[in-house]
């Protein structure tokens, strides 16, 4: 499940001829996030997580995060993602934990 972002970046490059590293980076990390994500990557990471088809994300969560700045918004999505993975017994990507710890320092 987590590999589709990386595979998507490879396919976008090889099959679609996309060479813009910002776009490829956003595709590559949209499921796990990564430390020091640039704005486009952070926005795609958030959008992927909160899109309306996600049954585990309710409107209360979407309303609560609506007024947050980008770092706080990413932090809330990371927290929610980690909690969801743990609840389901899924592994959490190392990049996600590294992102979480970096944001803890920035957001505090």
Layout: helices, strands, pairs:
Blueprint: H1 4-14, H2 21-28, H3 39-50, H4 59-65, H5 70-88, H6 94-107
For the structure shown, list the relevant keywords.
single chain, 108 residues, mainly alpha, Hypothetical protein af1432
Give the structure's gist in a few sentences.
With 108 residues, the protein is mainly alpha-helical. It contains six helices and no strands. Helix 2 packs parallel to helix 3.
Descriptive overview:
With 108 residues, the chain is mostly helical. The protein has a single domain (4-107), classed as Orthogonal Bundle (Hypothetical protein af1432). Helices cover 66% and strands 0% of the residues. The protein has helices spanning 4-14, 21-28, 39-50, 59-65, 70-88, 94-107. α2 (21-28) runs parallel beside α3 (39-50) and α5 packs across α6 (94-107). The longest helix has 19 residues, at 70-88. It starts with a helix and ends with a helix. The model has no long low-confidence stretch (mean pLDDT 91).
The share of residues in extended strands comes to under 5%
Provide the CATH architecture: Orthogonal Bundle
Strand and helix order: HHHHHH
Shape: globular
Query: CATH first level: which class?
Result: Mainly Alpha
| Tally of helical segments | 6
Radius of gyration (CA) equals 14 Å
Q: In total, how many beta strands?
A: 0
Number of domains: 1
In terms of quaternary structure, the protein is single chain
Stated plainly, the CATH topology is called Hypothetical protein af1432
Mean pLDDT over the residues: 91
């Amino acid at each position: 499940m987590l590999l589709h972002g990386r595979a998507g970046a490879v396919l976008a490059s090889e099959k679609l001829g996309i060479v813009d590293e910002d776009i490829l980076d956003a595709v590559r990390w949209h499921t796990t996030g990564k430390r020091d994500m640039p704005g486009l990557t952070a926005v795609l990471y958030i959008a992927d997580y909160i899109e309306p088809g996600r049954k585990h994300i309710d409107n209360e969560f979407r309303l609560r995060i609506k007024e947050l700045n980008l770092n706080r918004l990413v932090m809330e999505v990371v927290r929610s993602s980690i909690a969801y993975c743990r609840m389901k017994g899924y592994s959490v990507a190392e990049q996600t934990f590294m992102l979480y710890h970096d944001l803890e320092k920035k957001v505090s």
